[in-house]
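hi! just following up on the protien thing from before. the input was this:
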Amino acid sequence: METPIISCCGTVCSECPAWPDSCDGCFAVHGTPYWTAEAGLERCPLYACCRRERELPHCGLCKELPCEMFRSLKDPAMSDEEHEKGLSERIARLKSRSQE
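and the predicted 3d structure came back as:
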């Protein structure tokens, strides 16, 4: 089994339908996954905050996790329930990574 590619926000890049054909994961594209262009963003704000501003390897090491930005960035195709479930899974994944 391959090791999953996990972004700094806890999303499993290697489970995304765009990976690896349209995107090699947030670390490989330096926070500019395919959806940033669709959203009119230069870079993912979570990646920019975590990697550029705070210089952390991932959000799990941030004392503010989950911050307002982390909670508010939502895929518009998700229901509120799906979003909350995804947040919980990402936070748990990040916290376990911070123990490594």
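The radius of gyration is 13 Å.
The CA atoms of residues 79 and 85 lie 10 Å apart.
cheers
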